[in-house]
Amino acid sequence: MGEKIKISAGTIARTAVLALALINQVLVILGRPVIEIADEQVTQFVTVGFTVASAIISWWYNNSFTAAARAGDKLMYEIKERAGE
Question: Which residues are within 8 A (CB) of 59 and not within 5 positions of it... i.e. 6 or more apart?
């Protein structure tokens, strides 16, 4: 019970971004946006974000570069073969 659980940096960052987004949204409604971004820029940011995220995820999960990963792939294929998949 004496051990403290720390809040992760990711949690703090996500909370800060959410707070900024909520504050900006309220200010937009009031006619005073903090972050002035055109609709076209938002579309570009979202598109780039999805492209970068999908590229990183695809590269990371579909490529076995380390010896341990290649050994794991070999074992996976052997198990699938035995199971008749």
Answer: none
What is the number of residues in the chain? Answer: 85
Residue ranges per domain, the chain? 1-36, 37-85
Which pLDDT tens digit goes with each residue over 15-62?
887 888 788 778 878 887 666 667 778 778 878 888 888 888 777 766
pTM of the model: 0.40
Q: Are 60 and 66 a contacting pair, CB within 8 Å?
A: no
Distance CA 65, CA 74 (A): 13
* Euclidean distance between CA atoms 51 and 43, whole angstroms: 12
Torsion of CA 60, 62, 66, 70, to 10 degrees: 160
Cβ(53)–Cβ(43) under 8 Å?
no
